[in-house]
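Re: [ENG-882] Designed sequences occasionally contain unexpected residues at chain ends

Forwarding the minimal case from QA. Structure tokens:
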């Protein structure tokens, strides 16, 4: 909506910023000079005891010398009420008694209709509030007492009571000149199909008024006092004022509280919201008797970037969480997500704070799980992945699910996180019987980020430039083969994941390569280069110059490449393992020789002999690394180190 020229200037001149700010602060009488329009107070935007917040009423501005917050009346309303620009304009217009410009004749007519209905709803709210204090509401008051609701809490949420009669509200409103058609349009009364007298929709129920973001009464919620009632909770039907999929209970107060706390909690029902607010957690809302909708999610994200969804810890609560994950996934954006709290089974937020206090709820919110954890749980819970086919089915499902995330950068981060959890789930673990198996996810069990410290300090890693070059060449060739043939990344994923790389810069490329393996990328090299900030292909080709065979070049037969990749991985792993054996043998030879030392040297020699001396593919280049290992082993044998005695 566009505003007429000069409208905002006129609005500012008609309002006193000191009057607006004065509702949120306490003026310092010693520093303030009202006669000159000069006001000082502790700042409402940060915690302080001194009065560093300054308002110049005549100029219409404020400034804090502590946190440097500044602005005019509109800015102050937006920051303290946590509302958008147009909502702030509407609030300021109401303060000044200025009519907002009509959008168009039809919009003006609809606005006038809604205004009239809101006034009728306000009359109903007041009527039901008064009824709560009557003799007929004794049972309702006893129920609220049992739920621990204090009188001031009942007043703050304007809780009321609908008598058991069919026409109590109808007669009250008719006496005030409200027609049956208007009551029906507001959702307060209904007319029988046979054309009889209208009857009240809410009877023998505790009443919870529902207000919109501007604080207008738009609907009612009612909790039945009769245990045999057809519906325990009943909401108003949809009306020109009320669309339950576009409204949140406690919207306006939670938005203001969230502006101070930076948080938003989403509970399931009225009593959860009220109970949390009573213990000081005011930044809480609830959907209205239905699953959270896309429109409600948008409202939540306007209040806070990362709402915390607090659901009952039962199967229904978990199902609701999973449905919300499905809804939110395509709507996620950088900085806009959800976190989840699943309460202990059998407890809702109301039960929790009444039995354990606010601290218990604060702790759960602090430990809330990111949405990616719920997504992973949704995909894996109750399933067994004891075969390649089942694991492949999981991978397919994950790709399809993550593909629904519209933002490519965010999707990549989700893929990285899912990859970590997938590794933890499928990491091989040795069983007691000697066979292999798969262990369940544990956040402490993470794959190694590179070679172990003992490997880096081994004979192979310390032998000098020649050996370092050979290791670098092998590692480069492994990566080049995968980048030229991305389809092999997934096939060799497990071996690549646990293969020790001795060169930290190449190990970084290896990890990046594994992170993109979950994606169907036509050009893995381009994706990794973008991630690492340099041309990966160019760097690797320079390192492996002269060793790149025809079978690993781009365009080669993929099965030929797979065979050569198998060869170099096996060779790389064997040479590192043999070097580790020699290093351990050298360490043992410095002390008392163990009975197994000779056997270990012999095993290293046999394993070394089994390694093909050709470096990789059809290259005829010499392998100085192998020669060095051979010479080292022979020297140990010639000197009969197993016969050494301690000095």
């Amino acid at each position: 909506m566009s505003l007429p020229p000069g409208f905002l200037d006129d609005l500012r001149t008609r309002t006193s910023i000191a009057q607006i700010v004065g509702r949120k602060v306490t003026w310092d009488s010693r520093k303030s000079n009202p006669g000159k329009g000069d006001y000082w107070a502790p700042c409402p935007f940060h915690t302080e005891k001194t009065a560093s917040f300054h308002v110049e009423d005549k100029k219409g501005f404020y400034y804090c010398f502590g946190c440097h917050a500044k602005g005019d009346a509109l800015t102050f309303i937006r920051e303290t009420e946590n509302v958008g620009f147009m909502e702030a304009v509407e609030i300021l217009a109401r303060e000044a008694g200025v009519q907002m410009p009509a959008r168009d004749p039809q919009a003006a007519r609809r606005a006038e209709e809604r205004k009239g209905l809101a006034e009728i709803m306000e009359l109903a709210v007041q009527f039901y509030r008064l009824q709560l204090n009557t003799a007929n509401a004794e049972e309702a008051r006893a129920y609220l007492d049992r739920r621990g609701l204090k009188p001031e809490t009942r007043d703050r949420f304007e809780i009321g009571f609908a008598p058991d009669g069919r026409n109590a509200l109808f007669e009250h409103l008719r006496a005030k000149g409200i027609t049956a058609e208007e009551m029906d349009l507001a959702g307060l009364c209904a007319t029988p199909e046979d054309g009889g007298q209208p009857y009240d929709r809410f009877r023998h129920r505790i009443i919870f008024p529902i207000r919109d973001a501007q604080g207008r009464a738009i609907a009612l919620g009612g909790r039945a006092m009769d245990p045999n009632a057809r519906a325990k909770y009943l909401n108003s039907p949809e009306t020109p004022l009320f669309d339950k999929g576009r409204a949140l209970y406690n919207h306006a107060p939670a938005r203001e509280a969230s502006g101070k706390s930076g948080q938003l909690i989403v509970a399931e029902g009225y009593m959860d919201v009220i109970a949390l607010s009573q213990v000081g957690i005011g930044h809480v809302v609830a959907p209205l008797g239905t699953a959270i909708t896309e429109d409600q999610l948008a409202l939540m994200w306007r209040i806070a970037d990362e709402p915390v969804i607090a659901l009952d810890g039962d199967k229904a609560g978990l199902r609701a969480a999973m449905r919300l994950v499905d809804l939110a996934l395509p709507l996620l954006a950088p900085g806009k997500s959800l976190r989840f709290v699943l309460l202990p089974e059998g407890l809702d937020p109301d039960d929790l704070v009444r039995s354990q206090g606010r601290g218990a709820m604060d702790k759960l919110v602090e430990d809330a799980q990111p949405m990616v954890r719920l997504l992973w749980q949704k995909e894996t819970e109750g399933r067994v992945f004891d075969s390649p086919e089942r694991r492949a089915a999981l991978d397919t499902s994950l790709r399809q699910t993550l593909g629904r995330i519209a933002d490519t950068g965010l999707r990549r981060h989700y893929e990285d996180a899912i990859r970590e959890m997938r590794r933890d789930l499928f990491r091989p673990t040795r069983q007691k019987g000697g066979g292999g198996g798969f262990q369940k996810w544990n956040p402490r069990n993470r794959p190694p980020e590179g070679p172990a410290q003992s490997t880096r300090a081994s004979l192979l890693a310390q032998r000098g430039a020649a050996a370092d070059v050979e290791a670098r060449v092998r590692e480069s060739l492994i990566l080049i083969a995968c980048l030229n043939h991305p389809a092999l990344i997934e096939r060799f994923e497990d071996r690549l994941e646990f293969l020790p790389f001795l060169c930290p810069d190449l190990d970084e490329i290896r990890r990046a390569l594994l992170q993109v393996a979950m994606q169907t990328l036509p050009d893995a090299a381009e994706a990794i280069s973008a991630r690492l900030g340099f041309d990966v292909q160019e760097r690797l080709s320079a390192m492996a110059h002269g060793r790149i065979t025809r079978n690993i070049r781009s365009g080669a037969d993929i099965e030929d490449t797979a065979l050569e990749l198998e060869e170099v991985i096996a060779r790389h792993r064997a040479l590192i393992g043999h070097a580790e054996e020699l290093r351990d043998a050298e360490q043992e030879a410095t002390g008392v020789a163990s009975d197994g030392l000779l056997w270990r040297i012999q095993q290293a020699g046999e394993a070394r002999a089994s390694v093909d001396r050709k470096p990789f593919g059809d290259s005829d280049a010499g392998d100085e690394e192998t020669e060095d290992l051979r010479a080292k082993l022979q020297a140990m044998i010639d000197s009969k180190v197993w016969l050494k005695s301690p000095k």
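QA comment: On inspection the terminal residues look reasonable. The chain has five domains: 7-96, 105-242, 251-377, 382-438, 453-638. Proposing we downgrade this to a documentation issue.
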